[in-house]
Amino acid sequence: MPDSLVSPLHNYHTSQNAKFIDFAGWSMPFSYEGTIKEHNYVREDKGFFDVSHMGRLEIQYNDIAILQSLICSDIENLQVGKALYTIFTNNNGCAIDDVIFWKFQDKILLICNAANTLKIKEHLITYSISFNDVTNSTALIAIQGPNAIQIMKGLVDIPDSFSCLQNDQYTYARTGYTGEDGLEIMVSLDYVDELLDYLKSNNISPCGLGSRDTLRLEASLPLYGFELSDEITPVEAGLKWTITNTQPYLGSEVIIEQLKNGPHKILKKFEIDTRAIARTGTKVSAGESGGVVTSGNFSPRLQKSIGFVMFENQPSTDLIVFDIRGKLVEGKILKKRFLN
Fold first, then answer.
1. Is the terminal CB of the chain with fewer CB neighbours within 10 Å at N or C?
2. How far apart are CA 30 and CA 257, in angstroms?
3. What distance in Å separates the CA atoms of residue 167 and residue 75, rounded to the nearest whole number?
4. What's the CA gap between 267 and 255, in Å, rounded?
């Protein structure tokens, strides 16, 4: 992939015989030992992901009021030292990107999806928000799993859940995209090898984007471009809990109208009690409501097929029929998370 961007950890991935894919213009590891094996490392023990392809922008406090007018959550009143998951919305109330903010005393760090980094930068420029793009001068590594925090205590102070800290070497938060506990650590290129050596010396195995996707799906977490897009609002995506901004922001009128039970499409979780996988694009019906699978895969933990469906309107029944390659397969809507 000669034209692809590469992570600062690219040589390490190559030395570990990683299988690469092109993701949003980046050559990133899809797997090392196999997706299922790496999935289980994180669910049962620990593993780490290179997520350096994600955009990292430092924003100063003098632009926080403008920033507040572009997202559906309340960042102005967010406590210093906390992380915030939120959504940049457009004039139609739909998602430009879903992002994480880490709020420090001296700056706010914005972490956005790799495919949307340029779009977010242009959006900030349009609204005269200054930023320092540190994507290419740092790496971003996510250490995840039930045993991750215990091991990372030997390297850094551990913040509370959804909180962030920084020291001379690392800027990090107790956040993740797997449904497990862990840290996401931004590190300057000078200290990448030191962090990698610590992970290797503590037998934390590298995991690829393949297992990151199956882990996030089991954790009932959305993926931009699938469960969220510039044609899907936070309400439609089942993310009402992110809407904490009580001030006017882009598209807030549309979102307020939807919250008042205005008609809109709606995202639902599903399961199929067989190994038949309803993949992205599979057509679905539930009573009179039609829909399309946004994400679907086989869950290594649950040993059944799971995923998300975007329905045209609220289904009247929990029974779903999938058209999987011309064969009709039954499933059901879930009202709870896939994993408790």
1. C
2. 41
3. 23
4. 15
210, 219, 331 from 274: Cα distances, Å: 21, 19, 9
CA distance 337 to 340: 6
User: 54 near 111, Cβ under 8 Å?
Assistant: yes
User: Contact at 8 Å (CB) between 201 and 223?
Assistant: no
Question: Cβ(156)–Cβ(165) under 8 Å?
Answer: yes
**How many helices, marked H, and strands, marked E, lie in the chain?**
8, 20
Q: Would you state the pLDDT for residue 261?
A: 81
The Cβ-side half-sphere exposure at 37, using a 13 Å CA radius, reads 8
Nearest in space to 286 (alpha carbons), one of 306, 315, 308, 329 = 315
What does the pLDDT read at residue 28?
98
Place of tokens 């930023």: 131
DSSP 6-28: E-TTHHHHHHTTPEEEEETTEEE
> What is the C-alpha to C-alpha distance for residues 213 and 131, in angstroms, rounded to an integer?
29
- Residue 215's nearest CA partner among 38, 21, 84 is 38
Q: 195-205, pLDDT tens digit by residue?
A: 999 999 999 99
Provide the β-strand partners of residue 268: 309
Amino acid identity, residue 144? Answer: Q
Q: What is the pLDDT of residue 63?
A: 97
Place of tokens 């879903």: 98
pLDDT > 90 in the chain, percent: 97
Q: State pTM to two decimals.
A: 0.97
* H or E segment to which residue 112 belongs: strand 108-112
The length of the chain is 340
Distance (Å, whole) CA 135 – CA 112: 10
* pLDDT confidence tier of residue 2, bands split at 50, 70 and 90: low
Distance between CA atoms of 220 and 307, rounded to whole angstroms? 8
Give just the sign of the alpha carbon dihedral 125, 130, 58, 10: positive
Q: Is residue 157 scored above 50 in pLDDT?
A: yes
